[in-house]
Amino acid sequence: MSSVSSYFDLSPAALSELLGERLKLARLNQDLTQAQVAEQAGVSRKVVINAEKGKASLEVFVALLQALNQVSQLDQFLPPQTLSPLQLAKLQGKRRQRASGLGLDFVQGQQAADTGPAGEDGSW
Fold it and tell me: What one-character-per-residue DSSP string does 28-55 give?
């Protein structure tokens, strides 16, 4: 099953089983036992058995990839993503805007203008 389009026809459970089979083949190709991989990954042998059946958490899956020296495959599995300029603009549009940028000098100038050129006796 190497056609990408055929992956769309599979259920999540079937895709998980496929990944489990690939984990098992990677282990066998390195001539490692389930117990050896379990020890290197810091999990039990039962966890490895379940992972090879497609029943594993993401954390366990990554630990097994590390034990099998296959972590570099993660870039092919899910390549690093960047935000498109359009999405970046949308996200920046949702940021809170600062108040009008009027500084303290403006506010003090307004107060002086409001009082007018009053003399010491308060007359205009």
Answer: HHTT--HHHHHHHHTS-HHHHHHHHTT-
Write the pLDDT tens digit of every residue in 6-32.
Answer: 888 899 999 999 999 999 999 999 999
Domain assignment of residue 65, given as a range: 7-77
CATH number for the domain harbouring residue 53: 1.10.260.40
pLDDT single digits (tens) 28-87: 999 999 999 999 999 999 999 999 999 999 999 999 999 999 999 888 888 888 888 888
Rounded Cα gap, residues 116 and 108, in angstroms = 13
Place of tokens 């489990």: 20
**Rounded to 10 degrees, what is the CA torsion of 49, 55, 61, 65?**
40
- Within 8 A by CB and 6+ apart from 44, the residues are 38
Any domain includes 46: yes
